[in-house]
Amino acid sequence: MEYWIIQIKPFSPKKRNENIVLNFQKDCIRNNLFGMGWNIDDNAYPAGEPMPDYEEYQQKWLETGSGNVSKTAYHAYQNIQAGDLVLFRDRNAKYYIAKVKTTAQWLTEDTVDFETYHNAKEAEMPSNPLSWACRVEKWYPI
Length: 142
Hints:
The protein has helices at 19-30, 54-62, 71-79, 115-118, 120-123; strands spanning 3-6, 33-36, 85-89, 95-99, 105-106, 132-135, 140-141. By secondary structure, it is of the alpha+beta class. It has a four-stranded mixed sheet, with no helix packed on it. A three-stranded antiparallel sheet has the order 2-6-5. The mean pLDDT is 83.
């Protein structure tokens, strides 16, 4: 079993102090998941598809003209396994812990109930701000 400290804020630095971040984090808690950004589009992979190797994903991402995917973060998500424990701190400095239920899988808007997705235009973010997510059994405040 491994222990991970994660961040749930796939927003530009200028947006990270806005309410949309806390709303998004609440969506993650309600949906029992956490993930990372670098979304290409909802059709890049089938929902539930495991993460491909870094080079394949990086090439697809570069084709969007959006820069690089962090190799360190990408490989860290590939290493998170079922049974591991994760800890995160929300925007209001409240901490949560959870046991990982699934390895990182491709998300689409259809696979999660995110209020944030419905408000994406107002938040000036992609309609699907997460690309890969691990499911957890349940988030517990600590």
